[in-house]
Specification:
The protein is mainly alpha-helical. Helix content is 64%, strand content 0%. Helix 1 runs antiparallel to helix 2, helix 3 crosses helix 4 (56-74) and helix 6 (108-117) packs across helix 7 (125-135).
Length: 179
């Protein structure tokens, strides 16, 4: 029982141009199915499915979408919205305000404790980190401690440099006085 192919309103050249300019692979596949029908490379849904490597039911769904709403409906790709955010807008606003102050937060653990304690929201550390770092696009105020050996060697080098600079200054001043 072969279902009739849809009547395609667009020309072969129009679909080819859309195929060239389309960036999304899912939309390209759908346009390719239309192109195969318009260019008469395929004469049935099963031939289109074999040529593109999709199940014939998928191709039938695409053609049904095209028949129902045209090219616009065919190229509309469903995107799930994802899970609802657990951290409330009030909590995010408070975190944002504190991060804007000079004191801010030292660690993500402090932010996690604020969210869990004050706002009574049970979220993981990772969720707090993602909200602060990527949604609020903020960074913590204090740097992580560096290696103590590096700071000692830097301080030794800087003290040696300042000692050398002092000697040069004194010797140049002594030379000016002698002249």
């Amino acid at each position: 029982m072969n279902k009739a192919l849809p009547k395609i309103k667009e020309t072969e050249a129009e679909i080819r141009e859309m195929l060239k300019s389309e960036q999304q692979v899912k939309r390209q596949n759908r346009l390719q199915a239309l192109y195969l029908i318009v260019s008469r490379q395929a004469e049935s849904r099963s031939q289109v499915s074999k040529m593109l490597g999709f199940n014939r039911n998928t191709i039938s769904e695409w053609f049904s979408l095209y028949e129902a709403g045209g090219l616009e409906k065919l190229l509309e790709i469903y995107r799930p919205c994802g899970a609802k955010a657990k951290i409330t807008a009030a909590a995010m606003a408070e975190i944002s305000e504190i991060l804007k102050t000079e004191k801010g937060f030292r660690t993500y653990k402090e932010i996690h404790q604020l969210v869990a304690g004050k706002h009574k929201i049970a979220v993981g550390y990772r969720a707090v980190h993602n909200v602060v770092r990527y949604k609020l696009e903020a960074k913590l105020k204090s740097r992580r401690p560096s290696n103590p050996k590096k700071t000692k060697s830097k301080s030794k080098n800087s003290s040696l440099e300042s000692e050398r600079n002092l000697r040069k200054l004194l010797s140049s001043e002594a030379a000016n006085i002698n002249e």
